[in-house]
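Hey, can you fold this one?
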Amino acid sequence: MKRILLIATGGTIASKRGQKGLKPLLSSEELLTYVPSVKEFCHTETLQLFNLDSTNIQPMHWLAIAQAVEKNYETYDGFVICHGTDTMAYSAAALSYLIQNSPKPIVITGSQKPIDLEITDARTNLSDSLRFASCDRAYGVNLVFDGKVIAGTRAKKERTKSYNAFSSINFPYIASIQEEHILFYLDDKKLLCEPLTFYHEFNSSVGLLKLIPSMDAAVLDYMAEHYDGVIIESFGVGGLPNYETCGYYSAVKKWISQGKTVVMTTQVTNEGSNMSVYEVGRTIKYEFGLLESYDMTLEAAVTKLMWILGQTKERERVKQLFYQTVNRDILWKA
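Sure. Predicted structure:
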């Protein structure tokens, strides 16, 4: 029987209602009591790291989770991390960069309703996650939610209330879970050949700028004083405005001249960016050698840049690492 470590971090799944609203209060041991049937297929032990609403999760918490997995890696066959849904996609992506090429499954899950309610998705999600973490064919960092298994770098929360809150963006689902059965759509563990690697550094000095029509480029000048890297969420397949009244060209030039990193992505969820299509994107991309996220999710782009800048700020090395595929995060590079 597989040995699984359940790591609790808080979130809705562990919440109880108080006078000021839902707040994570249940412990990891208490969570486990709501899914007694898992004793039939795995032996589970628990670890309470913290008990936070995921709105309060930061890079230091991602590092703490990864370190807990590393410390216990040889003792257990798989890991399940209970987490709030609001930043779960960021955490799943971050763990994909902090723990690479794991032959053991590392599953992140949560719920839209607390586990102690009569009607809730929490018990199913937790049971499914423990089942997947106990499967010989499972590996790496994945998110399990509403019967779907999603690569850690491809998950995005697209619904605030429904049980089917998460989708896999620009990539197929890894598997689906129906009661006691796991149906794999991608069964490629045999292709895992790189060594398991844990990373211990993250640079959280990464900013995000979401463009809106008429936004002043001076915002980028301000961000340059506070961040080592910026991700610009542009329109459509990607580009920067060329307004008469403000200069994005000059702002980007300032970033590059200071040795800082600029990544272009799109506000559109599906199909990715391609700055080479239009003049507003092509000119500035090739003049300054801007990085482009292509088919990556925003969550993956943000956490990948934090991981990279934690290792190096050397321009060519940053570029090399950004376009290196990690846990299925980027497949299309022009």
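The chain has nine helices and 18 strands. Let me know if you want another pass with a different chain boundary.
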